[in-house]
Amino acid sequence: MATATSSCLLLTALFFFFFNLCDCTEFQVGETTGWTVPPRNDTEFYNNWASAKRFTIGDTIRFSYGKKDSVMEVSKRDYEDCNSTRPNYFSNTGDTIFALNRSGRSYFISGTAGHCRNGQRMVVWVITQQDHSHAARSSAASGGGLAPITAAVITIIGSVCCLPFF
Question: What is the pLDDT of residues 113-127, one digit of tens each?
Answer without folding.
Answer: 999 999 999 999 999
